[in-house]
Amino acid sequence: MLVTPSRTLAAEVVRLVAEGRGSVANRASTRRALARHAAAVLVRDLAEGVALVNRLAPEHASVVTRGASRVARQVVAGAVFVGRYSPVAAGDYGIGPNHVLPTGGTARFASPLSVRDFQRRQSVVRLTRQGLARATEDIVRVAMAEGFPGHAQSVLTRFEAE
Description:
- The structure is a single chain.
- This protein is mainly alpha-helical.
- It has two domains: 2-114, Nitrogenase molybdenum iron protein domain (Rossmann fold, 3-Layer(aba) Sandwich); 129-160, no CATH class.
- The chain is 47% helix and 9% strand.
- It contains seven helices and four strands.
- The strands form two sheets. A two-stranded parallel ribbon has the order 1-2. Strands 3-4 form a two-stranded parallel ribbon.
- Helix 6 (129-145) packs antiparallel against helix 7 (149-160).
């Protein structure tokens, strides 16, 4: 999918993709993929384009524009390739980023496979009386809103015996 504010660029990319279809290794698969998933989407500006890409949260995103580094910092994707000399194939085959990426829009909440996925992690919470007192009202409000009065009471109980 191409997301661009440029009609000229969109038309040229559509033409080049059509022209290049005959030279791919698996023509039938490519034809199906393009028919189901290919699009050149025109947006008003880069901000609208970034918003659209972020809703899609693609596996890969290539940011090729003026100020690409700045724009890329706003993009949500499994892997973001910045500038004209950073093709996806470089990340897949040559320079080392993980090739196991979140697909189907899951980049909104998931990350590429990492060594961290093979490490055991845990959260450790240690509050002081003052810290819990500051958070009590919010904790109780959320617990009650979620329908868990016992959770709310487990916080309130800490202060009842005082």
